[in-house]
Amino acid sequence: MILGVTAGMKLLGSLNSRLQYPIWEQVLRKSGLSEDETTKVVEKLKAAYVKWEEASFPGLLGNVIAGRIANRLDLGGTNCTVDAACGSSLAAMKMSVNDLVDGRADMMITGGVDTDNSPFMYMCFSKTPAFTKDDRVRPFDAESKGILIGEGLGMVVLKRLADAERDGDQIYAVLKGIGSSSDGRFKSIYAPRASGQARCLRRAYEDAGVAPNSIGLIEAHGTGTAAGDVTEFEGLREVYSTAAVPAQSVALGSIKSQIGHTKATAGAAGLIKTALALHHKVLPPTIKVDQPAPALAGSPFYVNRELRPWIRDKSHPRRASVSSFGFGGSNFHVTLEEYTGKLAPYPERILPAELIMLSAETPEALATAMEATAQKLVHEEDLAIAASDSHAGFTADAPCRAAITASDNKDFAAKAGKIAGLIRAGTVETAPLPKGASVSLTPASPGKLAYLMPGQGSQYVGMGRELALAFPEARAAWDFPASHKKAGKLGLHRLAFPPSAFSEAEAKAQADTLTAMENAQPALAAASLAVLAVLEKAGLNADM
After folding, report:
1. How many CB atoms lie within 10 A of CB 501?
2. Does the pLDDT value for residue 81 go beyond 70?
């Protein structure tokens, strides 16, 4: 159990203040108070602070944060905390990996803990100065003004890969390499150094045995400070441009745009975000970027501000990196890879809607079934479970049938209520139905099934995005042409899911590129194949 911690002695100020009473007494006496008055005031002051007691000493010690967990879980391996300022959680991870590699442990729990957003902590950062001058933290935005601090606890379980496979564990990502470095002698203790960070990155990729051009996502330290972001970008560009990584080919983000800078937990937060991105095969967004910093223009990096499917060619697995840097020139960078082994799971669904299917013998019974399902969802949060239950109970040859797609419980209740009313009014087969709903009150007539695919003119930037996010089969349809040069030098997925546009002119240029005949036709083919793959997964087979 090794955790990154920076502010473990949170009670120190209060407990130490109680010991200052001789000074209080001296000041009060010199101010003219009697001995009795002085004693009463001092006792009141003492009572305002946390009391000294048996548990006070361990409560002051940062190492007890890890020690308490190891005690309760009966862990027998290394038990300590490490302080590398805002790089603490990745420093703890490096130490944990050493224990696993050396065989001193078979499992390590590691991460970071930081729950100190006290006035003292705000004073420290405000005097740096590092705080944003508005109420937003915007890493890599042209108008970024500084950080906001947060609190957090983030932990992960590490095992040797062979052991995790043997034990049947859920494996979210594979840690390939860790790099660390010091900035060395520089102009101040606060100032980050690009060359020191670049050294850290190179060591991580060397340790992993991978090239920078195989990395598709970087979770940056990205604090949002002018000096920090520029320095981090310079370090990244030094490594990636030297490796001839193509322009705008690596997504760049920072979880600090969502949860603030959690200090000792920052690296753990970025690591968890990145492991989940690899697990779900998605490129997660960074929010609050209105216009990327000018330094990003023409570089290998782009700020990703919307959830996009992570398409790759077959030359290597999906790979990502995470940075975490601390005051004093402490630099850490880890390289992760998607797990593709025998226990690779079918990822949880990321669906924008659920399909509920109902059947009955009479129209009234169908209306009643809709209302009953809607009422059930008032008390049951999981729409996906209700949808799966409805599929199991659906009878395809029943006289009356309904299918309703809903984004949430309220959406389903609204649609079901309207359709039930139309059924009872006798107008359900003639009146307009809510979007995403279909109803039939007559038995199905078996016939042949034909698919009509969209043709040129129906293309648009982002087409098929939700399908590729939700279904591995759809994503695979885009992965396939990504491995073939004949699919075009831009790559079909780069046409359909290009980097985020930050201006109308940029958005128009992306749409015009996709609309060109030599691009639109193969991109539409890929989008159609993605739909076809999902339909086949659902058990549908067209006759034509």
Report:
1. 16
2. yes
H helices of 127-265, in order, are: 161-166, 194-208, 226-242, 256-259
- The pLDDT tens digits of the residues spanning 238-293 come to 999 999 999 999 999 999 999 999 999 999 999 999 999 999 999 999 999 999 99
Task: Return the structure tokens found at 381.
Answer: 């949060």
Residue with the two structure tokens 């944060």: 65
Query: Within a 13 Å sphere around the CA of 185, how many CA atoms are in the beta-carbon half?
Result: 0
Q: For 303, phi and psi rounded to 5 degrees?
A: -80, 125
From the number of C-beta atoms within 10 Å of its C-beta (0-12, 13-18, 19+), residue 36 rates as exposed
pLDDT of residue 446: 82
21 backbone φψ class: left, alpha, beta (φ>0; ψ -120 to 50): alpha
Asked whether the beta carbons of 213 and 231 are under 8 A apart, the reply is no
Sign of the four-CA dihedral 472, 476, 482, 488: negative
How far apart are alpha carbons 416 and 375 in whole angstroms? 10
> Which pTM does this prediction carry?
0.88
Give the mean model confidence (pLDDT) for residues 214-239.
93
